[in-house]
Each structure stands twice: as structure tokens, then as C-alpha cells.
Amino acid sequence: MTFKSIRQEIASTMARDPAARSGLEVALLYPGFHAIVLHRAAHAAWRRGWRFLGRLVSQFARWMTGIEIHPGARIGRSLFIDHGMGVVIGETAEIGDNVTLYHGITLGGIAPAVDSAAQVDTKRHPTLEDDVIVGSGAQILGPLTVGRGARVGANAVVVRDVPAGVTVTGIPARMTVPRDRAEARGFMAYGTPSGDQPDPLINAIETLRAQVATLSARLEEIEAGAVPRSDAASERTDEEECDASSG
Ligand SMILES: CC(C)(COP(=O)(O)OP(=O)(O)OC[C@H]1O[C@@H](n2cnc3c(N)ncnc32)[C@H](O)[C@@H]1OP(=O)(O)O)[C@@H](O)C(=O)NCCC(=O)NCCS
Questions:
Q1: Which atom of ligand 1 has the smallest separation from the CA of 138?
Q2: Probe ligand 1: pick from 136, 176, 179, max atoms within 8 Å of CB?
Q3: CA neighbor of 44 nearest in space, from 32, 57, 27
Q4: For residue 151, is pLDDT > 60?
Q5: How far is ligand 1, taken at its centre, from the CA of residue 80, in Å?
Q6: How many Å apart are CA 165 and CA 183, to the nearest integer?
Q7: Can you give the pTM of this predicted structure?
Q8: H or E stretch at 168
Q9: In what helix (H) or strand (E) does residue 233 lie, and over which residues does it extend?
């Protein structure tokens, strides 16, 4: 793993975690980042045939982070594992670029080992294509494919292929948000459109701004003498009432 790719992993974490405040924070305090760096080392050892060393590094990473990635798993650029505790990624799992995983996720096998020797090199775990987001607690089981940009809801159990761009939820997972609606959104932290959640402080400020604008316009009208006589009279009455009550 090069220095450049480490910087890329840190940058991708910062881009996708609203809570990440600095690169140093990510490098020192993010278990997902530690798990990925250690997985790159474990996978390099695995590919060279140093299987025991690969498993050793993988087990160390699991002990340190709570994230278990088999050294044989193939992982693309900029994987972001948020929180991470309880994530399990199986030996023949494949993960594309810019994928986001939350905690408690399994990319697991499903076929019972009739002949475990014959199963060693067969594909038993899922493939996640680029830009997939998987919500916390989701279980994705078997050699299926989750298509590019798809979103898997929290606690879903996925046992069939997921088409690109859609959102699936539930047990067994079914499509709840179609591709055209989900695709327009780009990356969203937690897989959820933040634009749908108004900030109450901004709303209050906007309301006050609108009220000030209305009052200013009204004041200008009064000063310009454009207010009808009846309105002005009722305003005078209001003023007098005010004076009377304060006096
Ligand atoms: C699945 C998810 C991406 C959908 O987000 P969305 O595009 O905003 O979809 P909506 O909120 O419009 O929900 C669409 C429908 O799916 C349902 N739904 C949403 N998430 C669900 C879930 N995890 N399980 C079951 N149903 C779910 C909604 O109730 C809604 O149903 P309705 O149409 O009958 O009302 C999101 O709900 C989710 O689970 N994100 C993962 C968040 C996460 O893991 N956070 C951990 C952070 S630490």
C-alpha cells in the first residue's frame, strides 16, 4: 500500500463521514481505516502464498478493530467502513471502488459444505459493485451481485442479486426505492437524503428574515404616505391603546 493510496483512503473517509474532522483523526482513531490498511498487507501476503501470515495479520486486525476481513477477499479503492464492529467479509467476497459499509454487516457464504475440500476455490461470497452503500446489520449471503450504486437498508437480509441503483430493504430484501429515484442522489451518508431533513435553526432564521422584509416594506409604505386613511386611523388607534396600556 503506497502513501498515496493511504491518503486516498483517508480522504474518502472524510468525504463520507459527517463526523470526521481531520485526516489525523481518521488515521489514528478510525477502526475501519486500520482494518483496510491491515487487510492490504494481509491480502498481499495471501496472494504470495504466505497463507498463514495473511491469516495472522487478519486475526490481529480483527482483535484490534472488531472487523474481520478474510485475507483472500478482494477490495477496491476507497472502501469506507464506518464504526465497523461486527463486520465480517468472507474469503471470496469482492468489493468494488467507493463502497460504504456500516457496522454489523456480513458478506457471507450460504451453501452448506457438502464437500468442504471442493468448496475451497469456488465463489461462495457476494460481490458488491462500485458505489454500493450497505446499512448497519445487513446480511448479504451467497455468491450474488449487488449492482453498482445500489443501497441495502439497515438489517436487510439479501439472498438474491440486487440490480444497479435500487434500494432494497427487509427480510428477504426487496426493492423499496426504484433506480430512477435513488440514482439522482449521489452519495448520502447513511444512504439517506440529508436534503429531506431541514435544519430547524436555518428554518427559524429564514422565517425571521421574511418577517423583517415584510415589516420593512410596510414601514416604507407608511413613511411614503401610501397607507390608506382607514389603515392609518386604525394604526393610530393601536398606538393610542398601546400608550394607554403602558402609561
Ligand atoms: C434503506 C435506506 C437507504 C432508505 O433510505 P431512503 O432512500 O431515504 O428511503 P425512504 O426513507 O424513503 O424509505 C422507503 C421505504 O422503505 C422503508 N425502509 C427504509 N429503511 C428501511 C429498513 N432499513 N428496513 C425496512 N424498511 C425500510 C421506509 O419505511 C419506506 O417505506 P414506505 O414507502 O412503506 O413508507 C435507509 O432507510 C437505510 O436503512 N439506511 C442505512 C442507515 C444506516 O445503516 N445507518 C447506520 C449509521 S451508523
A1: 44
A2: 176
A3: 57
A4: yes
A5: 20
A6: 6
A7: 0.77
A8: strand 167-169
A9: helix 229-246
